[in-house]
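User: My instructor asked us to take a sequence, write out its structure as C-alpha cells, and then describe one feature of it. I'm not sure where to start. Here is the sequence I was given:
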Amino acid sequence: KEPNIDIQPALDHLQNQGPNKDLNMSALTKKLCWLLGICSFMEPSDIEYINLAHKKFELTESQCILPTMTEYLHHIHDHEIMMPHSKNKMELYRPLIHDVRFPKKAVGSDMISNHIASITELLSPPETAKAHAIGPTKAIKKGA
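Assistant: Let's start with the prediction itself. The C-alpha cells for your sequence are:
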C-alpha cells in the first residue's frame, strides 16, 4: 500500500518560524534546502551543484520558495566562493548552499540531506520517503 504523507506538520513548522528575515542562518538554510527538495523535486546532489554564477531569479512574494531564496541570498552575498566541481576539477561553480558555521565553505549533498531531513522528520514519513519524491507524489494524487 502506498504511504499517505501529511506535510502539514512541516508547513506549520515553517509558518511558526516567522518571517525569513528573522531566521538564523541554520534555520534559513534548512528551510531553503527543504523547499528546494519538496517544491523543485531536487535531490541533495542536485542542490549541491546549483551554480549561482549562471542563475538569475525572478523573485515574487506569491511563491513560497522565492522569499526564502531571496533572504538566503541576502545572508550569503558577502561570501561569494568558487568551487571545483567534484566530477570535473577544471570546472568551477558558485555553490548555493554554504556551511552555516563557516559561510565561506560550501557543503556537500550529505549536509544538504541533513538540512532537508531536519524538517522532513516532522512529517512522520516512512523510512524510505525522500523530499524530492513527496512533492510529485502529492501533485499526482491531486490530478497533476
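For the description part of your assignment, you could build on this observation: The chain has one domain: 8-141. Try explaining in your own words what that tells you about the chain.
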